[in-house]
Every structure is written in structure tokens, then in C-alpha cells.
Design a protein that fits this description.
Layout: H1 8-34
């Protein structure tokens, strides 16, 4: 088996991680406007 398909849990972890990263960027860009 050359390629191993990621499990559902691994895919969800990747999605959650990217969502946290995106929200962190949004918060960072919005924070100067609030202050």
C-alpha cells in the first residue's frame, strides 16, 4: 500500500486546526480597529 488514506478523525483535526488558525488571523486583524 503506497498511499494511506487519512482517517475521519485526522481529517477533522486538520479542519479544526485550520479553522482555529483562520479565526486567530481574523482576531489579529480586527483587534487594532477595536483599540
Amino acid at each position: 500500500m503506497l498511499y494511506e488514506e487519512p482517517t475521519c478523525c485526522e481529517k477533522l483535526d486538520l479542519v479544526n486546526a485550520s479553522n482555529k488558525y483562520k479565526s486567530r488571523l481574523v482576531i489579529r486583524t480586527r483587534s487594532p480597529a477595536n483599540s
